[in-house]
Design a protein that fits this description.
By secondary structure, this protein is an alpha/beta fold. The chain has twelve helices and 14 strands. The two termini are 14 Å apart.
Length: 331
């Protein structure tokens, strides 16, 4: 049996497969709210509580930097140790990989129906791929092709310095530096970033916060869905939410272009994360494309590289399962 997981700051999905496996037919699959568990092994124990199965191997894609056989999650208070999981859960072998590495591993196995073009271009055969996924935080990775095989590589590029590309973004950076010693792309281009942009517009740009919106925000611990939903509501205009999404879109587009350059990702840039799927109705793709291709002397180079949105609901599960199968030599 193969146990796989996608461990994120907001939710964690766990699936159980027989080997060799069919990715469409897990024996069981469940999604949990990550914050409801003090320790990660407790979540796994909850998943396995009613399953009389002996687990031989596990692969977990984790939102955080994996060092050796351990990882401390970036947006959760979890220290995950592979050896500890093997001992406590009686699993023969546990592999920990970065969650974006897991998504990168999924790309060769995704169907055409699992993808949607956000920016048209031409993929270069055997060209490197870049992967970015705004979620609770901002994940990034890249994929190389060697001898016809795909190899995914983890990255913590989401924590690189935010680089403003307009005067309003310069103001936004100055505003953020009043609170943070270091402002990364994750601080603005993610689920935790949307409220930062909103707060900047409210306090520095004097955008009005409607009473009905203030009431909704006061009743929630996570303001991001409220802000995005208000931007999508055509019946009740909300300029502050519209501008929040516009700035987010421009920053995401610019960072996609940065990845295209840094990794020379001529095979394409792939965008994952459920957050973007929920924001498709409010993202201005023209604004996104302008930010993506605005790279000075390399604008033409970047404009030829396609951007593809991953529509599959659980690409990290797909990638983690294939990783485990390949490591076991059962593919």
């Amino acid at each position: 049996m193969l146990l796989v997981g996608d461990i994120g700051g907001t939710k964690t999905t766990i699936a159980l497969y027989p080997l060799p496996f069919n990715i469409e037919l897990p024996i069981a699959e469940m999604t949990f709210k990550s914050a409801e568990f003090k320790h990660f092994p407790d979540l796994i124990t909850s998943f396995l509580s009613d399953k009389q199965k002996e687990i031989d191997t596990a692969v977990f894609g984790v939102a955080g930097p994996v060092t050796g056989d351990s990882v401390r999650t970036t947006n959760l208070p979890w220290n995950i140790e592979a050896k500890e999981l093997e001992a406590n859960l009686r699993i023969h072998k546990v592999w920990l990989i970065n969650d974006l590495e897991a998504i990168g591993n999924s790309i060769p196995f995704l169907k055409p129906s699992d993808l949607n073009d956000l920016h048209n271009g031409v993929s270069e055969e055997n060209g490197a791929l870049a992967v970015i996924a705004p979620g609770t935080g901002l994940g990034e990775a890249y994929v190389t092709v060697e001898g016809g095989s795909y190899f995914a590589h983890p990255s913590e590029g989401g924590h690189a310095d935010f680089a403003p590309t307009s005067s309003i973004q310069v103001e936004l950076l100055e505003y953020m530096l009043e609170t943070y010693d270091h402002v990364s792309y994750e601080r603005l281009c993610s689920g935790i970033g949307i409220p930062n942009i909103y707060s900047f517009l409210k306090s520095r740009r004097q955008y009005e916060e409607p009473n009905w919106l203030a009431e909704q925000l006061s009743r929630t611990k996570d303001p991001t869905p409220v802000i995005v939903s208000a931007a999508a509501n055509e019946n009740t205009p909300c300029p502050i939410c519209d501008e929040t999404v516009r700035l987010f879109t421009a920053i995401l587009g610019a960072e996609c272009g940065n990845l295209a350059l840094k990794y020379k990702a001529t095979g394409g840039v792939y965008v994952g994360g459920g957050m973007i799927l929920k924001m498709l109705d409010v993202i201005d793709l023209d604004e996104f494309a302008r930010a993506y291709t605005n790279k000075g002397r390399f604008s033409e180079f970047v404009s030829k590289i396609p951007i593809r949105l991953i529509l599959h609901p659980n690409p990290a599960i797909v990638g983690a399962a294939h990783y485990g199968q390949q490591r076991l030599g059962t593919s």
